[in-house]
Design brief:
Low-confidence stretches: none
Number of domains: 3
Radius of gyration: 24 Å
CATH class of the largest domain: Alpha Beta
Shape: globular
Order of helices and strands: EHEEHEEEHHEEHEEHEHEEHEH
Largest sheet: 6 strands, mixed
Number of helices: 9
Number of strands: 14
Mean pLDDT: 84
Length: about 350
């Protein structure tokens, strides 16, 4: 992923038009624009991004100068434990949401990614999977109305369910609560990255009797805050993307492959069977954050005898201590993401989201 501001403001129309042409010419490119006026090109690796930039500069913008950032890795926020019950009050103090956050298993997240389950499937089919599949076996499968939000492309594999008893006016605030939940899932509390693998239970709701005091402007920010508080209380963590690496090389130099991968937090899980002519086909995992320059390092270590192919495979938790520790690895990554997005380096305090009775 690269951030692209223009060097000369007069060239902005050229950039916008060039990005449209680039996205049409390459179906693997994803183009986004930020509120800061930066344009983001998301691609499938370092070489792909280099080709996209070359095409954009030479073919679609006709020589207009660009400013490119270093490649940026997209992370996801997640939770690793079940939180205690958290409370958030609306701005007028008349409405309260009580929720609990807990993680979804990797198997459930994979089912979302492979579209085995999703928000657009038939309710009866979904209830059958939620009730019978060993990864789910959810109690709310018998009452589909209890599931308010069932992850989609915008918010990833995240779910919101309710188990309240005898709450008046609950259906009137459903859309507002789901809107606040999606808002939080798109911009997580730690560093505004998307949230993945989160399930939120709405345990109880207190609402004002007058409809004017429980409108969307009061409920949506409250739902976002209570979701953020639940994430902070459920041992939050960062997920980093991981490449699957396929390396073809002579069998005699496999030791060099191990060295190159180990220096970049990679690991080989399959040496492959020896192919004709003494060629080995090795497979391993390589974190995307450490993949920049990998092809060049591999060529230098093997004198050009090894060839690699990278493709996204899965997400894994980024180890590195507590996210509030500025000296820890996780804290440094979060601080760098926040600074890049124009925020203060320190994550927000818990009391910004969590209220007391």
């Amino acid at each position: 992923m690269l951030l692209l501001p223009v060097k000369n403001s007069a060239d902005l129309p050229k950039l916008v038009e060039g990005l449209k042409k680039l996205s049409k010419s390459d179906p693997m490119v994803k183009i986004e624009s930020t509120e800061a006026g930066e344009h983001i090109i998301a691609g499938c690796g370092e070489l792909h991004l280099e080709i996209c930039l070359k095409d954009l500069a030479e073919d679609f913008m006709k020589g207009a100068p660009l400013v490119t950032s270093d490649p940026v890795v997209t992370y996801c926020e997640t939770v690793t434990a079940e939180s205690c019950e958290v409370l958030a009050k609306s701005a007028n103090k008349h409405n309260r949401l009580f929720c609990t956050a807990l993680p979804l298993s990797e198997e459930i997240q994979k089912m979302f990614d492979e579209e085995i389950v999703g928000p657009n499937m038939d309710i009866k089919d979904r209830s059958k999977i939620l009730r019978e599949h060993p990864a789910f076996q959810w109690e709310e499968a018998s009452t589909p109305q209890k599931i308010w939000c069932f992850g989609n492309d915008q918010i990833g594999p995240n779910v919101m369910c309710e188990r309240t008893v005898g709450v008046a006016y609950l259906n009137e605030i459903k859309d507002s609560v789901v809107g606040g939940f999606k808002w939080c899932c798109n911009e997580g509390p730690m560093c505004d990255e998307r949230v993945r693998g989160l399930k939120v239970w709405i345990n109880d709701v207190t609402l004002h009797a007058d409809a004017i005091h429980r409108g969307m402007g009061q409920i949506s920010p409250t739902a976002r805050r209570v979701t953020s508080a639940g994430i902070f209380m459920a041992n939050p963590a960062l997920l980093e993307p991981v490449f699957l690496v396929n390396i073809t090389c002579p069998s005699a130099i496999t030791g060099s492959i191990y060295n190159v991968l180990s220096m970049r937090r990679g690991q080989v899980f399959d040496e492959g069977e020896g192919m004709a002519g003494g060629v080995a086909n090795m497979r391993g995992y390589l974190p995307v954050a450490d993949s920049f320059g990998f092809s060049q390092a591999l060529a230098e270590a093997t004198s050009g005898a090894a060839f690699s192919q990278l493709q996204f495979d899965h997400w894994q938790i980024l180890e590195g201590g507590d996210f509030r520790d500025p000296e820890g690895k996780l804290g440094k990554v979060i601080a760098a993401i926040r600074v890049r997005k124009g925020q203060v380096a320190e994550p927000p305090p818990l009391d910004r989201f969590l209220d007391k009775l």
